């Protein structure tokens, strides 16, 4: 009888947890975001951020043409990442016969975007002031903070992903000359590993 009572409590707890968390995140969206991150980093390194002087604590202004190209590249990669995330999330929710954008999804997005927008604006200011390496490092830190802030409304793995991004961002500050490489690891490699684990664990 006691065992049956504990099992019932566990089932009730699981149901409540599912109802309070957005669990339809797709592992494929993480993989696609990682591939886009690698592609964006390569294009930035190959055609825009070619001078090592960009990666220091001293201001080194990007020429207007390169700054414009960098902002266009960043915007394009961001839009593609959002688009693929929405697509794979929609497919995952349809597969599980769940609502894609319920109350928990809205809360997740609000908690994700508040640190993300603030960090994005600060990084843009740093870029315009010539602190490219610092902007890349802060990108990782604020992205990690955004993931941790949103993780209470979704799977626990998102919090781990956020912590990894913050650590990479702090390391990028310590070794500013490797900021682009660490940005590539965070937004590229770590996303692919995270997405692969999620895909295997949750079959999403």
| Helical content (DSSP H or I, runs of 4+) | over 70%
Provide the gyration radius in Å: 19 Å
Structural class: mainly alpha
**Number of DSSP strand runs:** 0
Integer average pLDDT: 88
Percent range for β-strand residues:
under 5%
Order of helices and strands: HHHHHHH
Fold and architecture overview:
The chain has 204 residues and is an all-alpha fold. The protein has one domain. Helices cover 79% and strands 0% of the residues. It has helices spanning 2-20, 27-47, 64-95, 103-129, 132-150, 156-174, 179-202.
Architecture blueprint of SSEs:
Elements: H1 2-20, H2 27-47, H3 64-95, H4 103-129, H5 132-150, H6 156-174, H7 179-202
Helix pairs in contact: 2-3, 2-7, 4-5, 5-6, 5-7, 6-7
Which properties best describe this structure?
0% strand; mainly alpha; 7 helices; 204 residues
Sum this structure up briefly.
With 204 residues, this protein is mainly α.
């Amino acid at each position: 009888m006691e065992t049956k009572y504990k099992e019932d409590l566990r089932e009730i707890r699981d149901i409540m947890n599912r109802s309070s968390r957005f669990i339809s995140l797709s592992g494929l969206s993480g993989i696609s975001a990682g591939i886009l991150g690698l592609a964006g980093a390569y294009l930035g390194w190959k055609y825009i951020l070619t001078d090592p002087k960009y990666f220091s604590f001293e201001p080194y202004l990007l020429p207007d043409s390169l700054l414009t190209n960098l902002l266009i590249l960043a915007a394009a990669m961001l839009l593609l990442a959002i688009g693929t995330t929405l697509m794979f999330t929609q497919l995952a929710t349809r597969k599980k016969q769940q609502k894609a954008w319920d109350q928990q999804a809205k809360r997740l997005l609000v908690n994700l975007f508040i640190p993300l927008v603030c960090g994005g604006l600060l990084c843009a200011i740093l870029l315009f002031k010539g602190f490219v390496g610092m902007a890349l490092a802060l990108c990782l830190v604020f992205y990690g903070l955004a993931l941790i802030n949103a993780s209470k409304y979704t799977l626990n793995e998102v919090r781990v992903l956020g912590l990894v991004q913050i650590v990479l961002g702090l390391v990028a500050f310590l070794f500013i000359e490797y900021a682009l490489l660490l940005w590539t690891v965070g937004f590229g490699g770590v996303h692919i590993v995270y997405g692969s684990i999620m895909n295997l664990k949750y079959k999403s």
